[in-house]
């Protein structure tokens, strides 16, 4: 499974890439505008910081305007994945952009039927929103499991990008289901490292460090 980080913070991306924790990035308009930086400049910098795909939203509209915006966006760097909304016009734009060799992430997926249409439109990625479904009391992990089964039934190549992952447990559950990619904020990825027994063992070892004080020759 590939790990993407959901942030527009370049330093945070560099730290996680250097540690080998993440393979790509997802952003949202909110995360980008919180940096206060021009979109093109910021996206170019993020795309240099990570080799894998960097998902960036555009302004929703009709197919033609989204194709124009999508071409401009993916001209910024070869690893840009244009985020398109799950709308009729968004899916039409997806068909055009992926047909022209551009990467597309069809976002805001909340049903298996939507995921079916995304793959028919040639999407590179489809993003089911696990956390937002759970916010409404629905089974977000159940949805990604259902999409996995459907795509496997027919050998569809669209990668399932589980989005809106807000806990380490849900991240691990996506791996168990066999999802292609999961994306989560930096603090969730860092939280995957922590466990109370790890912390306790480290505290216990700490009391004995004087006994094993190894110094370089
Ligand atoms: C990523 O592409 C999504 O926009 C993101 O994971 C959404 O997360 P949220 O539901 O916590 O805002």
From TrEMBL:
UniProt GO BP: carbohydrate metabolic process; ketone catabolic process; pentose-phosphate shunt
GO cellular component entries: cytoplasm
Species whose genome carries this gene: Salipiger pallidus
Subcellular location, record wording: Cytoplasm
Keywords: Cytoplasm, Pentose shunt, Schiff base
Domain of life: Bacteria
Keyword Heme recorded: no
InterPro entries (alphabetical): Aldolase_TIM, TAL/FSA, Transaldolase_AS, TSA/FSA_arc/bac
Entry GO MF terms: aldehyde-lyase activity
Name of the protein in its database record: Putative transaldolase
Pfam families for the chain: TAL_FSA (PF00923)
Gene name for this UniProt entry: tal
